[in-house]
UniProtKB/TrEMBL annotation:
It comes from Cellulomonas shaoxiangyii. Protein O-mannosyltransferase that catalyzes the transfer of a single mannose residue from a polyprenol phospho-mannosyl lipidic donor to the hydroxyl group of selected serine and threonine residues in acceptor proteins. This is Polyprenol-phosphate-mannose--protein mannosyltransferase. Pathway: Protein modification; protein glycosylation. Residues 265-414 form the ArnT-like N-terminal domain. It is a multi-pass membrane protein. Its EC number is 2.4.1.-. It is found in: Cell membrane; Endomembrane system.
Amino acid sequence: MGVAASTSRPGRSGRSVLTVPAWHPRRRDHVPVTPVTPPRGGLYDDRVPPTGDDAEREDAPGTPVPGGAGTLPADDSAARPPHAATAPAPAPAAGGAEPVGGRPEPGADPGASPYGPATATAVEDPAADPAADVDEPTDAPGGETADEPDEPRRETFLRRLLGDDARTLDATPRDRRNGWLWALAVTVLGGVLRFWDLARPHSLVFDETYYVKQAFSLLARGYEAAWGEDPNAAFESGDTSSLGTDPEYVVHPLVGKWMIALGMQLGGGVESSFAWRLSAAVVGTLAVLMVARIGRRIFASTALGTLAGLFLAVDGLAIVHSRISLLDPFLMFFALAAFGALVLDREQARRRLADRAAAVLDGGGTLRWGPGLGFRWWRLAAGVLLGLAIGTKWSGMYFLAVFGVMTVLWDMGARRAVGVRLWHVAAVVKDGLLAFVLLVGTAAVTYVASWASWFASDNAWNRHWAEANPDQGVQWLPPALRSWWQYHQDMWLFHNGLETPHSYAAHPVGWIVQWRPTSFWYPTEVSGLTGEQAQAACGADACSQAILAVGNPLIWWAGAASVLVALFWLLRYRDWRAGAVLSGIVAGWVPWFAYAHRTIFAFYSVAFVPWVVLTLVYVLGLLVGPASPDDSERDRRGRRRAVVAVGVFAVLVVAAGLFFYPVWAAWVVPWQQWHIRMWLPTWI
């Protein structure tokens, strides 16, 4: 329920009491003193029973918290958000059972999403509903409970680990069909914006002068060879005769350039600027589909997942990088795919844990450290994808580090949720060590393998450095690896020492609000037109043609505020979703503050734009909140207003995307039309 949807009613003392739906995260800290029966709850509530990764607070005496996680205060008004400070606990029903609407189970949701119809009915008598009378685990070792639950233990664990809305997300063929159709719909929109006149301009734009020509060199020579003087004009016309055989010193790995080369091979060859950019457009379009599907899985909502995909489809930074062949869109693509694999791994591992932990306890055993979870194929896939990300740009290493910690923390929470006493140690030993091998080890092997063409070549840069310098380098490595390692040391020194002044260099503190975007293209051949030539080109006395790598300002400005909200929700309520959507921002943005001394650019932020979108949608979901059968008419009316407000915001985001599209896609427009799109003086 959104803030606007909260209602007031008189309390017993006569003062006004603000009521907020009990299952919403902003009511996470309100736990009644008496034991309650959990009804089917809400979209973002993972509080009771615990989902594990949303670790309950242990800092106050009072109400017992399920899962052996400590206690909560009986009177927690000081710890509640201001708008929930005085909400009283409902009176117990007959027989000591709490009426439906008291304390919920994690993720349960009568509407399956903030926008969907109700799928569960309220239970008039909790004692009559087996699923509503779940005993909570005690501190007994091995995960035993004080009383056997009325439902199978496996089902109890699944509800604690996943939540009902996640479990029922694909419950029917219609749910599965809608989940794909809406995601594909926004993907089609994203594809149109990325592929429409992709060949414009037929010129090497910005750093395409390096990466496109290097990609062709990989096709022609197997390594990056040097070009003759001023080769661009000839290259753009399809003439590659100036490509030599001497190696060229380059400072980025090979994967992104091989991706560009693949597009050139499939799209029509070197003479086609469409072919230069084909791979970037494909991965940019697929990123829209992945964000929609990943968002749906994280938020357990087709509507929110679709909204995330829609926002990425109309973001300018994502569009520009899908229409220009740089390395950064491939870094983003592989990191996002790895993140999606880990989200799927989280769900699969929790289902295994529920099955195996229940089997152990039903057989009379104890959990001790909990069961093993078998081989994690999605983790292996994530390791390969992260290796490809690092093989595109070294900044992919930060995604490997952040995602690796995140997935082990998820395992810790899962083991805690089923009652493992030493859950932190168990997760490190039984999950973390294997996770390190699967993620770090696989990524390392993949990265080394991505240099296969360099190893296979006799003429690549530094390929025979070890033979020429037998007494230098890492002596215990074989010559090929010693040469390769020395090459990497040279690359590191270059990257860490790059301090060449540039007019579009930007400190990372401004990236999150797109303070100083990078101008990729603004040719004087167009801006210098006058008189009849200008009239013929754009219908005005002065023309402009621009490619400005600036994000959709509504997405980024609202996203910057959403980062603060999500960070608060993570620290205050321990919502795993907040940590998940922030993870890519931490990996893709925060490390650059350590390199603020060198020349860096705001367009690097395309690497974490999917997580800016997911963070924004996460907060919009908090504002809307889930529906409840116990809502008053005023509550329902307030929620409808919140849904409308989010819908209006989405329309404005799309409108902003269409408004800025000419300066993202190199349209020739009147100078005045270009100028009114420069909302900040730092954009020029």
